[in-house]
């Protein structure tokens, strides 16, 4: 059952089942948006982002975006919007010591710049969100418990941000911290393009142009940050999609190879066996 729950502290939780829809939105607050089944396309400016069950989209307050769903299977869209005061209080709680917390003014804010991009939807964050959804699905509302779930969502996101942005920025051979963060922001745009367009041929020039980097700068910094080249990263995405389709669908291997962007079935089988130490057919039989 779909719902929109607004808590007394103005945190909001939204579940909607969609088949066909094109909607424009403005994020009223800092938002985590994911889909639990199916796919959703989100457009933020010139960026076209594919949202699937393996990813979570972070949106800053005030961001305008459009979402499009065109699916024969239900797409379950799940969003959490955090009130600014709740975010501010969370940021203070993890950055200030006990004495500073006692002295902080009510309207003081230590909000860091929350980077809106795709993040992997896995681990503790995924577990927390799914537990929260299961609880809400039972139509029992204990706001204290729900806010504890939301607080833990922010803790796990903060850890994810540190791993996906700050730690990877430290790997760049750049002295200035602000420059490192800016380069990571641009590299994340390149990752979005790879993730959202894994099924087609993507040129380095296209990646570099969208990330506002030169081709050589993109190649050098991408490898420094992610320990992979863009092509290796794209290959991993394709193989992840292949494993999902082999487990969850009855699609023939040649159809899967074509769907995920391989030019020939034989090259897909050869690469799958090299990476997984088994063939796609054998993997499906043991999945």
Descriptive report:
InterPro entries: AraC-bd, Homeodomain-like_sf, HTH_AraC, HTH_AraC-typ_CS, Tscrpt_reg_AraC-type_HTH. The chain is α+β, with helices and mostly antiparallel strands and 287 residues long. The protein folds into 3 domains: 3-167, Sandwich (Jelly Rolls); 171-227, Arc Repressor Mutant, subunit A (Orthogonal Bundle); 233-286, Arc Repressor Mutant, subunit A (Orthogonal Bundle), CATH 1.10.10. The chain has helices at 84-95, 98-103, 123-137, 143-170, 177-196, 204-211, 215-226, 230-248, 253-259, 265-276, 280-286, and strands at residues 3-6, 12-26, 30-37, 40-44, 47-51, 55-59, 64-82, 118-120. Strands 1, 2, 3, 4, 5, 6, 7 and 8 form an 8-stranded antiparallel sheet that branches. α5 (177-196) crosses α6. The protein is globular.
Compile the SSE list and pairings.
Layout: E1 3-6, E2 12-26, E3 30-37, E4 40-44, E5 47-51, E6 55-59, E7 64-82, H1 84-95, H2 98-103, E8 118-120, H3 123-137, H4 143-170, H5 177-196, H6 204-211, H7 215-226, H8 230-248, H9 253-259, H10 265-276, H11 280-286
Antiparallel strand pairs: 1-2, 2-7, 3-6, 3-7, 4-5, 4-7, 6-8
Helix pairs in contact: 3-4, 4-5, 5-6, 5-8, 6-7, 8-11
């Amino acid at each position: 059952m779909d719902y929109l729950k607004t808590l007394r502290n103005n945190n909001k939780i939204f579940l909607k089942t969609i088949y066909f829809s094109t909607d424009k939105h403005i994020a009223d607050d800092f938002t985590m948006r994911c889909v639990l089944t199916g796919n959703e396309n989100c457009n933020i400016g010139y960026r076209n982002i594919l949202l699937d069950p393996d990813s979570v989209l972070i949106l800053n307050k005030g961001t305008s975006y459009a979402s499009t769903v065109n699916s024969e299977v239900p797409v379950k869209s799940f969003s959490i919007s955090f009130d600014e005061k709740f975010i501010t209080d969370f940021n203070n709680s993890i950055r200030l010591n006990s004495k500073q917390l006692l002295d902080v003014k009510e309207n003081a804010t230590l909000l860091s710049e929350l980077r809106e991009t795709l993040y992997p939807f896995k681990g503790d964050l995924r577990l927390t969100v799914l537990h929260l959804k299961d609880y809400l699905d039972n139509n029992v509302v204990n706001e204290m418990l729900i806010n504890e779930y939301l607080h833990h969502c922010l803790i796990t996101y903060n850890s994810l941000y540190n791993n996906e942005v700050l730690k990877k920025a430290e790997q760049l051979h750049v002295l200035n911290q602000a420059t490192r963060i800016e380069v990571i922001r641009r590299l994340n745009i390149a990752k979005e393009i790879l993730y959202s367009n894994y099924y087609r041929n993507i040129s380095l020039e296209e990646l570099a142009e969208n990330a506002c980097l030169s081709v050589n700068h993109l190649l050098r910094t991408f490898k420094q940050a992610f320990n992979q080249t863009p092509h290796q990263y794209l290959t991993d995405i394709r193989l992840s999609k292949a494993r999902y389709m082999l487990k969850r669908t009855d699609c023939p291997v040649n159809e899967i190879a074509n769907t995920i962007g391989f030019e020939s079935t034989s090259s897909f089988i050869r690469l799958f066996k090299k990476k997984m130490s088994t063939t796609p057919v054998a993997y499906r039989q043991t999945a």
